[in-house]
What does this fold into?
Amino acid sequence: MQSRAVLLAAVLPLVGSCAISHLMPPFSATRPDATAGTSVTPASLPARRAFRHHKRIVREYDPATDQTRVSVTTHRGTYFLWIQHPRLTFFYVQAGAAGGQVPASVFLIFRTQDPQSPASNRLALVCDGVREELAAAPVFWLEPGAMTTSRHYMYELPLQRLAAFVACGRAAIAVGDVDAPFSQDQLEAVRDFASGLRAE
It folds into this structure.
């Protein structure tokens, strides 16, 4: 993961000047990693079923890199006067158009916008009231706009972390002092997203 983080750190500062769909990093900045060496078993992730939520899971194929990216935005991000809510997007990358081996990790993009700025880049997952701070260091980039600036924090999460998170009855994610609670609809969307990673 360290070599990938170095590559992302080199590429992503350019994102602010590019028109990237869904505010996502370019395909060339990510590459799929197989699950070899991980302890995640099929039972660790939700079984595939009909999930009920109002979020959209997006599949994009890039022929230049022969990669497929699957993403879900659980929090759209709202910034108006005193209302300040971050945008959260989960995604993973697989080789090929049909999706290859299950990746070893997923990514989380946590975006805030001026005047909201986290006091630190420390990521925390909150599960049923228990807060766990992670040592994961983000890839960070700024996206200047006409009237404001967005801050993007991208974290790489092992599948074990995702599996534990979607098993929560109540959940939230925080970066520094900026919290993003999950409604049941949002949590169910992440379960749906995670179920696509379950090896059949």
Remarks:
- The helical segments are 2-11, 159-166, 184-195.
- The chain has one domain: 2-195.
